[in-house]
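Bumping with the actual sequence this time:
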Amino acid sequence: MRRLGFLRVAGVDEVGRGCLAGPVVAAAVVLDPRRPIAGIRDSKLLTPRARERLYREISAKALAWTLGAADPEAIDRLNVHHASLFAMREAVCALAPLPDFVLVDGFPIPGLFMSQRAVVGGDRLSAAVAAASIMAKVTRDRQMRSLHDHDSRYGFDNHKGYATVEHLKAVSRFGYSKVHRRSFRPRSLFDRIDTPSVDVVDRRSEGG
């Protein structure tokens, strides 16, 4: 994008869409081309230690970075797709100054006042989007560990809110907590709790 004259290009990504509990967290990152950061990749391809190291380096070297989030109540009200877009728009609009161009992983963000491009698999194609995925992932993982410190029954420190067998067994035993998304219904929770594959359904987004 800089070849086309855009000087401040923000990469945007989010994490937590497929979870049963916790927020969706988005990040927007404007990297500094004069200060390259080695090893930036899609956060899902990195170890937790590597993500933490890159989080610190991105924080120190990026021209700017910001976060946005949608809590479980907003996810239930808006549905997870629109809540994710809300969090990403919040992250972009918090950048100061605003970017010239935005690269988004997956879907375009409605309501932006600057040019943007949605790139499927953007976290593997763009360093700025990959950097955003790292910042969002590390931030959300820290939040889930904090939630575990307040309520250790569900094992948020291990699965970070995703629908693992461990998590489903805890929900079956204790019910949903205040940080669980009521609009998400894991089929296996009500069918067979020991099923090896878990299918999570967002009821509000079914049928389009």
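The tokens above came from a reply further down the thread. The domain at 2-147 is CATH 3.30.420.10 (Nucleotidyltransferase; domain 5).
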